[in-house]
Amino acid sequence: MLRTALGPLLLARLEDPGVAEVMLNPDGAVWIDRFDVGLRPADLSLSPADGERIIRLVAHHVGVEVHAGRPRLAAELPGGGERFEGLLPPLV
User: Which CATH number covers residue 34?
Assistant: First the structure.
């Protein structure tokens, strides 16, 4: 389910060894920080609902609850072990 929620374009960036970080802004814009060229827009966007769904799926996979009283999630993605941090309202 998590791989489906991330989608093929986002997964490709996560699996790229030249990518240091993938960021989703509150406006839905995705940014890629590459080792060779630095931070650039990814020409990719996600809806707020898709972003929240990804955060909740990661939380479920690592056995953590996220909600308004605990809106920050820090975890490693299941499978690849990539560092993940997600913020829900009221933080964003």
Answer: 3.30.450.370
Distance (Å, rounded) from C-alpha 37 to C-alpha 46? 23
CB 3 within 8 A of CB 10: no
Please state whether 40 falls in left (phi above 0), alpha (psi between -120 and 50) or beta: beta
Q: List the domain range (segments joined by +) for residue 61.
A: 2-87
| pTM, entire model | 0.86
Distance between CA atoms of residues 64 and 21, nearest Å: 22
Chain center to CA of 70: 17
Considering its fold, how many domains does the chain have in total? 1
In a domain, 92, yes or no: no
Q: How far apart are CA 31 and CA 71, in angstroms?
A: 22
Write out pLDDT tens, residues 25-52: 989 999 999 999 999 999 899 999 999 9
